[in-house]
């Protein structure tokens, strides 16, 4: 089953939000999904606790494991392969041994990137780590950059510049962006899934649901392509 790591060594890139909304979209489609919360702050574990406190079964297909450490992450990944359709790993926002282990075990690494040069520089470090692990494990480790927290109304000049640089360096970039939506923040605050949100809680939750589904579909399409390439 696909192991997908979400990695960026810079905090605030939208890594945890991307991981959670992807997992919710895939689970809502009927797939069994496990999130390994390897971020020391355990933000997704905290969200899951709030969800459970509400006594909801909104996403019976989604589970979260927050007991992930440098010493057990490889064993956790191996065990998760056997019982889940998808495993998503929310990695810590710094370069570490645990990040390297997870990348080495991944079928795909998703790199969230805001439209700033600082984010782009840190994303380049993650790409370097992926390529280093690919050499060490003697296999290709597919990856893709996805722009996150994008303003749906305007396209800043910095974003256009970074897009051009990525294209010139032949870095794979998702066509779908994860937009800046209040609903993506609200799920953490209220301990709900995107699908549970209503207009009384946050404006236009259905737009956020559609955005999450579009990102999930592109990820699945890219995974299918990579699997065919290997086969």
Instruction: Look at the structure and give the mean pLDDT.
Output: 91
Helix- and strand-based class?
A: alpha/beta
For the largest beta-sheet, the strand count, sense and barrel status come to: 7 strands, parallel
First-last Cα distance: 15 Å
What is the CATH-assigned architecture? 3-Layer(aba) Sandwich
Number of strands: 7
Radius of gyration: 17 Å
Looking at CATH, the homologous superfamily is P-loop containing nucleotide triphosphate hydrolases
Q: Within the largest sheet, what's the order of strands? A: 3-2-4-1-5-6-7
Supply the number of helical segments: 8
InterPro entries: DNA_Partitioning_ATPase, P-loop_NTPase, VirC1
Protein name: Chromosome partitioning protein
Pfam family, one: VirC1
Structure notes:
There is one protein chain. The mean pLDDT is 91. The chain has helices at 15-28, 43-53, 73-83, 97-105, 117-137, 157-168, 182-190, 205-230, and strands spanning 3-6, 33-37, 62-65, 86-90, 108-113, 143-150, 178-179. Strand 6 (143-150), helix 6 (157-168) and strand 7 form a beta-alpha-beta unit. It has a seven-stranded parallel beta sheet, with helices on both faces. Helix 1 (15-28) packs across helix 8 and helix 2 (43-53) crosses helix 7. With 231 residues, it is an alpha/beta fold. It has eight helices and seven strands. The chain has one domain (3-230): P-loop containing nucleotide triphosphate hydrolases (Rossmann fold, 3-Layer(aba) Sandwich), CATH 3.40.50.
